[in-house]
Amino acid sequence: MIKSIFILITFCFHLIATGQKPTIDHDTYNNWPAVGGAKISDDGRFAMYYFGIFGKHNTLEIQQLDGTWELQLDDVKEYSFSSDSKYAVILTSKRQIEVVNLGSADKKIIDDVQSWKMPLDNKGWLAYKADSSDDLNLMNIQSGRSKKIKNVDEYLFNPGCTVLVYTEVAVKNDSANSTTSKLHWLNLAQEDDRVIFDGSFGSGYVFDASGSQLTFFGNKTRANREDKKEQESIADRRRKTASSQASELWYYAEGKAACELLINKLPSAGFKISTNGLRFSDNGKWIFFKMELNTGLSMAEWYNALDEQERSEFFMKQIENPNYAPWLSAKSDPDAVQVNVWSYEDAQPESMKLKDAVVSTSGPDHKLTQVTGLNEENVSIVKDKGDFALIKTESGPFADEARWNYDARPAFYLVSLKEGSRKLLRPDNDQEAPSGIFILSPTGKYVLYDDTKGNLLCFQTSQGKWSKVVISPQFDCKGQLDNGGQSICPIVWNLEGWLPGDDAILIRDNHDIWKFELSGGKQCVNITNGFGRRNSISFRLLVDGNDWLNTQGTKRTSGYLLTGFYEKDKSVGFFHVNTLSSQEPQLLSKGAYFYEGVHDLGVQITAVKAKDVPVFIIVRMTAAESANYYITKDFKTFKRISNCYPEKEYNWMTSELIHWKTLDGTWADGILYKPENFDSTKKYPIVFEFYEEQSGELHNYLVPKYGNKTLPATWLVSNGYLVVRPDIKYKIGKPGQSAFNYVVSAAKFMAGKRWVNPQRMAIQGGSWGGYEVNYIVTHTDLFRAAFSGCGVSNIISLYGSKREMVSFVEYGQVRMGTTLWNVPQLYIEGSPVFYANKITTPLLLMSNPRDQAVPHSQGSQFFNLLKRLGKRVWMLEYDGEGHGISDHRALEDFNTRVEQFFNFYLKDAPPPLWMTQGVPEWKKGVETGLQLDMSGKVPEIKKVIDNKP
Question: Is the dihedral of CA 197, 202, 204, 207 positive or negative?
Answer without folding.
Answer: negative
